[in-house]
Design brief:
152 residues; alpha+beta; Alpha-D-Glucose-1,6-Bisphosphate, Chain A, domain 4; 7-stranded antiparallel sheet; 7 strands; 23% helix
Amino acid sequence: MSTPITHASFTLERKLNAPVSRVWSAFSDYGNKKKWFVGPEEWTQGESSLDFREGGTETDTGGPEGGFVSSMKAVYHDIVENERIVYTYEMYLNGQRTSVSLSTIEMEPDGEGTRLALTEQGAYFTDEDHVEGRKEGIEGLLDALKAFVEGN
């Protein structure tokens, strides 16, 4: 019998000391995104692509040298410049789908900075892919985003 599906959702918020336009560019421009949207230092980067438009896709593959391969495949569904991004994505471990998620990123001006909220609703298919680990991974990515847009 297969592992039961686990459903979970969470919202993470950040106050970024950068204008919305800079935060937006960190998501929408491939060169900018590759500067902060990366795995741990010990990971090797594999295939990656970004077609940032409604109906467009994004891929990102990597993992530790000689170890497992983690892959993400996303589709963008709703994009409102400088306001929100809605996308779905699948995660794979060594070619096996481990989860499917719906994510919404909302941005709004907050003084001279940006208030960002990321909400994710996920269906997790394996014991290796679970909401606690996903939340921790996205927390790390949002920390990297913050450092990038604030120039640290």
